[in-house]
Amino acid sequence: MALLEVNNLSISFGGLRAVDNFNVQIEKGELYGLIGPNGAGKTTVFNLLTGVYKPNEGIIRLDGEDITRKSTIEINHAGIARTFQNIRLFKNMPVIDNVKVGLAERYKYSALEGMLHVGKYRKVEKEMDEEAMRLLKVFDLDGERDYLAANLPYGKQRKLEIARAMATAPKLLLLDEPAAGMNPNETKELMDTIALVRREFDMTILLIEHDMKLVSGICEKLTVLNFGRVLCQGETKEVLSNPEVITAYLGE
Amino acid sequence: MNKITKQNLITYGIVIAAYIILEILMLTGNLSSHLKGLLVPMTYYAVIAVALNLCVGILGELSIGHCGFMCIGAFSSAFFSKATENSLPTAPRFILALIIGIAMAALFGFLIGIPVLRLKGDYLAIVTLAFGEIIKNVINSFYIGIDSKGLHFTMKSAMDLEMEADGNVIVNGAMGITGTPHNASFTIGIVVLLVSLFVVQNLINSRDGRAIMAIRDNYIAAEATGVNVTGYKMMAFTISAAIAGAAGVLFSHNITTLTASSQYFGYNASIMILVYVVLGGIGNIRGSVIAACILYLLPELLRGLNTYRMLIYSIILIVMMIVNWSPKIIAWREKTFGKSGILGFILRRKKEVA
Amino acid sequence: MSFLTYLINGLSLGSIYAIIALGYTMVYGIAKMLNFAHGDFIMVGCYIIFSVSAALSGNSVVGIIVAIILCTLLGVTTEFVAYRPLRGAASPLAVLITAIGVSYLLENIALLIYGADIKSFSSVISWEGVSFAGGQLKIQGVTIVTILVSVVILTVLQLFINKTKQGQAMLAASEDKGAATLMGINVNRTIALTFAIGSALAAVAGALLCSAYPSLSPYTGAMPGIKAFVAAVLGGIGSIPGAMIGGLALGIVEILSKTYISSQLSDAIVFGILVVVLLVKPTGILGKVVQEKV
Question: Any idea where the domains of chain A sit in the sequence?
């Protein structure tokens, strides 16, 4: 059984079918790419998968569980974490606290213990700190633990966003244009980070990307969207050599 | 001991030190009776400033109706104290009154939070103002009395209570509650302030506090990270209302005639608290305590200043907002002073708490 | 007959709210900010008319003209000095808190100049009004003038927005500032123009408000200002006909609840309406939905 199974997913805004009959199957451990020209509906697919929009039709299953009409929060708890095209960090909070927000669902104590700093507070906080630092180390952010997220350089902000998503211990990680706005060096480093995440956490990843080099370099499978529809789907090499895909990308 | 614990202890230290100094001055007869009268109000304004900063600085939602919660705390506790004045000894009665005032304010914070927190930004602010005014107006038209048959309630007039001859009007419409026992003292005020600080500062450094600040910084990302946005907003707003209620209890047990007047509970009073919070630093809990105390005492002590007080405060408020938040000025500051260096460090620290 | 009188009084008060609400709704629609000080512009206008009329021994026409000019200047200056620097600030609360500061500043300047005691304002409209049904139904001149003025203002504004270049620029700026700039629209100037119109309207509203309710204090404008914002929200913020409908509805509700329920609770009822509207239909009667992009 595939980890993520999406069947006949559709949504319309007004008269426009932004996503039309979208299907995808992602196996556990895969690195899957979702590509397509501007306005093809890639981010809309992400927003459907994470419950930001509710689909008009279709079913989304994660690990066999139907998550189609659940809220964003429930979907996160079910095991999907994401990053955003325009980075959305908790800017005025320290780097480590950004990660600890993600950890909060797994490391719990009551609100009263939190307000009075009694009971399990000290023990759980210590465990959270250790786990957060472990994550930050993986992303090479441990040196900046007390920086405000807003003060990190761009590349590190991207990394922190991934680290925060990983803190929620997802089954599936969605990355929305992780290389947007990066120079070639940063993109290279990002590719290493994504590879590292896969290795270290045995993570299944679905990523939206514009950067063809990045896509062909790391994704095993691709789905190409055009005008909200699946244009082509399959192994990366086959997809990229498909003439229809080339037309959609380069124009007539 | 980590950095945060140290910062928190410094805050308690400042409050306790100020308390000891003022107590010594009082014992040695160095405090005028005028100044003595200002000490309890100083504490409750500091308490409500802490409450409002939790709402504005930590939750990130502007409330301009917080004095409404103070009003609820004041009236519910004063009603209880008046009703049981002859049947309960002072200490347990006041403690119960305090609990009732806090609980009622929390209850209303929760109930009002349900609709209010569905809104954002300007709309949320104006609706808190609306609720503040509604609370004030409704309390102003309450008439509650007690006689041998029990409680009587009407919204028409004291005569309409139709009480027995032994009846006692407790809440008399716009004339409010008269003769609440003066149980609040400077010491009690300081204790309430310390407890409020303890709760709020600890909250900020807990998983719930981080969730609340995450919502403030980016609610879309917070949701995607699994934070229960509505629940945590409610939690912060309710706690903030509860603390404002505690301030109200101090208020009503320090005044002879309690009325739901605009002067104390209207939106202008709420805005005054907002001035304390902004000048002390949005999100800086210690700052709002210090700002509340200084800004409350200063004009009271320098009578000449009183005329110009609000004029000066409003100018400082405008200038501070522009200097701290204008994108152009921030860019200029960073260009001129850099992100490092002494001034850069100070500015960054400020940002850290903002 | 008395019900009809109250209804007409409500229409008159509602017309004043509508004129103030027009200022709110235009500024909110275009600058996306709640100008908390808008109500205080009304108060400033009233004091100017009061002073000028006193200096010219009762000539209120000159007073109104001076008030309109000075309020326009005040609005544009406030926008330039206090609000423009905060455009694009990281927190949306920054400009709202600043506006609250401006409101406080204006009230306290008035307090220093004129003192806290209430000044008696002599109506700018000397017309007695008309009587119907043998004197049973009397409509005051100020009531009729108020309603007429608001209708004229609404019509002119609608024409201005829909038929002139500047009006279209305003619409464009309210939709998308970035795109408007790319289309060659000077967004800063458009916002300044919006403030100018809104503030001039505040002066007009002030003249009418104080003619109908002739007591003037530094806080005269605050409450009507807030209620007019309620009216703007009720009608749908950003919508000019909406401000008119919202204003009239609010004025009628206020007068009727004052008369038939309780004068103590009428404000609570007005604010209760705001709460209900924002919960049931947050975009108001004529507003449109805007969703944040993820």
Answer: 1-79+170-252, 89-167
User: According to the model, what pLDDT value does residue B33 have?
Assistant: 87
B341 torsion bin: left (phi>0), alpha (psi -120 to 50), beta (else): left
Q: Which two tokens stand for residue B333?
A: 């500051």
Bridge partners of residue A32, in order along the sequence: A206, A221
Q: Are B321 and B278 in contact (CB under 8 A)?
A: yes
Determine the distance in angstroms separating the CA of B321 from the nearest CA of chain A, rounded to an integer. 17
Structure-derived torsion over alpha carbons of residues C102, C106, C112, C113, reported in degrees to the nearest 10: 150
**Interface mutation vs chain A, best among B207, B215, B237, most A CBs within 10 Å:** B207
CB atoms C230 and B130 under 8 Å: yes
Pairwise CB contact (< 8 Å): B322 & C98: yes
- Which one of C87, C104, C273 would you mutate to disrupt binding with B, by most B Cβ within 10 Å of its Cβ? C104
Collect contacts of C131-136 with beta carbons under 8 A, ≥24 apart: C133/C1, C136/C1
Q: What is the 3-state secondary structure (H, E, C) of chain C?
A: CHHHHHHHHHHHHHHHHHHHHHHHHHHHHHHCCCCCCHHHHHHHHHHHHHHHHHHCCCCHHHHHHHHHHHHHHHHHHHHHHHHHHHCCCCCCHHHHHHHHHHHHHHHHHHHHHHCCCCEECCCCCCCCEEEEHHHCEEEEHHHHHHHHHHHHHHHHHHHHHHHCHHHHHHHHHHHCHHHHHHCCCCHHHHHHHHHHHHHHHHHHHHHHHHHHCCEECCCCCHHHHHHHHHHHHHHCCCCHHHHHHHHHHHHHHHHHHHHHCCCCCHHHHHHHHHHHHHHHCCCCCCCCCCCCCC
d(CA B34, CA B300): 9
Single-letter code of the amino acid located at C22 = L
Q: Is C90 exposed, middle or buried (0-12, 13-18, 19+ CB in 10 A)?
A: middle
CB-based contact A237:A35 (threshold 8 Å) = no
Least confident of A134-148, B99-113, B300-314, C84-98: B300-314
Identify all chain B residues contacting C104, using CB atoms and an 8 Å cutoff: 271, 275, 310, 313-314, 317
Determine whether the interchain pair B216/A92 forms a contact, defined as Cβ–Cβ distance below 8 Å.
yes
Among residues C289, A60, C267, which one has the least CA distance to residue B260? C267
Chain C CA closest to residue A87: C294
Q: Quick check: C229 and C248 in contact, CB under 8 A?
A: no
pLDDT of residue B23: 95
Q: Using the beta-carbon criterion (under 8 Å), do C112 and B307 form an inter-chain contact?
A: yes
Probe site for chain B from C100, C264, C265 (most B CB atoms < 10 A): C100
Q: How many residues in chain B?
A: 354
* Model pTM score: 0.90
Task: Show residues of chain B in contact with A76, CB under 8 Å.
Answer: 223-226
Spatial separation of the C-alpha atoms in residues B57 and A219, rounded to whole Å: 43
The rounded distance, in Å, linking the Cα atoms of C89 and C101 is 17
The CATH superfamily holding the domain A1-79+170-252 is P-loop containing nucleotide triphosphate hydrolases (3.40.50.300)
B115-173 per-position pLDDT tens digit: 899 888 888 898 999 999 999 999 999 999 988 888 888 888 888 888 887 788 889 98
Question: Torsions phi, psi of A96, nearest 5?
Answer: -65, -35
Which residue among B199, B210, B354 sits closest to A100, beta carbon to beta carbon?
A: B210
Spatial distance between the Cα atoms of B141 and A158, rounded to a whole number of angstroms: 57
**Looking at chain A, which residue has its C-alpha nearest residue B214?**
A90
User: Could you tell me if C294 lies within 8 Å of chain A, comparing CB atoms?
Assistant: yes
Q: What is the pLDDT of residue B353?
A: 41
